[in-house]
Structure formats: structure tokens, C-alpha cells
Amino acid sequence: MGKFVDAIPHVLHSLKVVSMKYGPRSMEAARETHKLATLYFKTSQFDLAGKHIFKVLPVFRALLPEKSVELAEAEEMNRTLEILLRAKCVSHKS
């Protein structure tokens, strides 16, 4: 998990640069945001992963082909996060 955690600040910096160059709603920024969401997911930071995948999906849905692997991966992460975060809410209420 250490290498994933170490990569987060680098991807955050890259996202900032890419967003400034191409715009925060560009495909380039969406791809960097997807990388960041993946790192947060792999480090069990599910709230942050969800926050970022939520930003990615509208761009991917608008600009990628319906059968795109990239879109499918983002959709799958979103579904998994919904389940994990729902389970987290239920366990806190118990």
C-alpha cells in the first residue's frame, strides 16, 4: 500500500497542472482524476475515491464510447464504492 500512498501527492500535482492547461472538465483532467480515485480506492480511502469518481463519470459518459474499457472501469468502481459506503453507513447506525 505504501507505493500507492506515495503516488497520491504526485497525481494531485499532475491533476492541478493538467486542469490548468486543459480545463477542469477536460478528458485529460478526468483521466488524472480517475487515477487519483483509483489510488484512494486502493488505499481504502473510499470517501475520497467516491468524491473523485463522481467528478469523472459525467466527463467519461459524455466523451468516451459506450463500450470503452475506461468507462466500464469507472462505472464498476462507482458501483463498488456505493456498496462499500452504504455498508459503512449501515454499520455506523447499528
Overview of this protein structure:
This protein is mainly alpha-helical and 94 residues long. It is built from four helices and no strands. It has one domain: Alpha Horseshoe (Serine Threonine Protein Phosphatase 5, Tetratricopeptide repeat), CATH 1.25.40. It has helices spanning 2-22, 27-42, 46-63, 69-93. Helix 1 runs antiparallel to helix 2 (27-42), helix 2 (27-42) packs antiparallel against helix 3 and helix 3 (46-63) runs antiparallel to helix 4. The termini are far apart. The mean pLDDT is 93.
Summarize the structure.
The protein has helices at residues 2-22, 27-42, 46-63, 69-93. The chain has 94 residues and is mainly alpha-helical.
List the helices and strands and how they pair.
Blueprint: H1 2-22, H2 27-42, H3 46-63, H4 69-93
Helix pairs in contact: 1-2, 2-3, 3-4
- In the CATH hierarchy, what is the class? Mainly Alpha
Looking at the overall shape, the CATH architecture is Alpha Horseshoe
For the largest beta-sheet, the strand count, sense and barrel status come to: none
Report how far apart the termini are. Answer: 30 Å
User: On the 0-100 scale, what is the average pLDDT?
Assistant: 93
Annotated CATH homologous superfamily: Tetratricopeptide repeat domain
Q: What portion of the residues fall into strands of 2 or more residues?
A: under 5%
Structural class: mainly alpha
Indicate the overall shape.
globular
